[in-house]
Amino acid sequence: MPHGSMIGRRAPLMGLAVLYLLVTACGSDPVVPTEPSFPIIPAHLSQVPVPSDNPLTPVKVDLGRRLFYDKRLSSTGTVSCASCHRPEKAFSDAPNQVSRGVNSALGQRNAPGLVNIAYRHAFFWDGRAASLEDQAMMAFLGSTEMDADTFAVAALMRSEVYRNAWAASFGDTAVTMRRVMMAIASFERTLVSANSRYDRYLLGEKNILSDQERRGMQLFFSAKTMCGACHGGQDLTNDQFQNVGLFNHYFDRGRFNVTKDPRDEGLFRTPSLRNVALTSPYMASGDSDKGPLTTLEQVVAHYNDGGTPFNNKDKRVRKLGLTDAEMADIVAFMKALTDSSVMNRTEWLAP
């Protein structure tokens, strides 16, 4: 039989086979491709909490990044969010003991780092802001921070500089200061750090830490030091407020300024220790009765001495009796909490 005739006889059978496959495929659930979550979070960290009224989108995050670095948001055109939250210092204001705003106005405390800030539930050292959006607004309007001219900022958002990015982020051209803060907060929620050597150790690279760093880790999480009681969890913070015996009198009354509760006198938010080696000086004002705390060695010595007596001092802060070698081990471990990628992630740097 000619070859062409065979093809002609097989064609109806092939058509029936294709039809059968189509019918059976329609009878099963279709495979729908899913979009990856944004931002992509390492598996050993929990998903970033995102408020329902401010969903994360790539275009809004990019707008927020531009706003984060834009000095025109301040009244003098000289201060941006990044002025006090610099990527090379894990988005902290190191090495400044106290941060400065417009016209070099001196604040009361130093600006804490923003890495992994999305996981916090209270913001500023005294916890006076309940959301990243509120935190950004307070800094935006603060007279010793950005002291923003809201009319000038609104005009900037409507200008050709931001008009298209604004519409793409919010779906319309209505400008509010709350939306400006929503964009900045969206960018800040993507500042997730999880690639320190300590992270890699937790993920199974047991030889990534030196013997000294492992000894320091064991001491850090031991009942002897109880460092891990306040600095535990994925971000090495309990997200609470403590007094760690820095002064015997607190001119900055800390959490009390928010709650007016005498039990909160001199209490400050426990910071994350991620990238702590990059964020000197330490504590809210970088200071103590015994002098500035500019090195991790000084911080560990402060805790080893039991701090300064104060009625609200946390009972876990007491004399530890550590040797010089043991204190050096703890410092070595804390330096292993550095994720150097925070300093050069292109998606976090100024556009």
Describe it for me?
35% of the residues lie in helices and 1% in strands. The model is unreliable at 1-28 (pLDDT under 50). It is an all-alpha fold and 351 residues long. The N and C termini lie far apart (71 Å). α2 crosses α7 (177-188), α9 (211-220) crosses α13 and α12 crosses α13. It is globular and about 60 Å long. The chain contains 13 helices and 2 strands. The chain has 2 domains: 58-192, Cytochrome Bc1 Complex, Chain D, domain 2 (Orthogonal Bundle), CATH 1.10.760.10; 197-341, Cytochrome Bc1 Complex, Chain D, domain 2 (Orthogonal Bundle). The longest helix has 24 residues, at 3-26. A two-stranded antiparallel ribbon has the order 1-2.
Percentage of residues assigned to helices:
25-40%
Number of strands: 2
Order of helices and strands: HHHHHHHHHHEHEHH
Output the CATH homologous superfamily of the largest domain: Cytochrome c-like domain
The end-to-end distance, rounded to whole angstroms, is 71 Å
Poorly predicted runs are 1-28
Structural class: mainly alpha
Largest sheet: 2 strands, antiparallel
Strand % is: under 5%
Summarize the structure.
The protein is mainly alpha-helical and 351 residues long. The chain has helices at 3-26, 58-68, 81-84, 132-141, 150-158, 163-170, 177-188, 197-202, 211-220, 227-230, 256-259, 296-304, 324-335, and strands spanning 241-242, 268-269.
Layout of secondary structure:
Layout: H1 3-26, H2 58-68, H3 81-84, H4 132-141, H5 150-158, H6 163-170, H7 177-188, H8 197-202, H9 211-220, H10 227-230, E1 241-242, H11 256-259, E2 268-269, H12 296-304, H13 324-335
Helix pairs in contact: 2-6, 2-7, 4-7, 9-13, 12-13
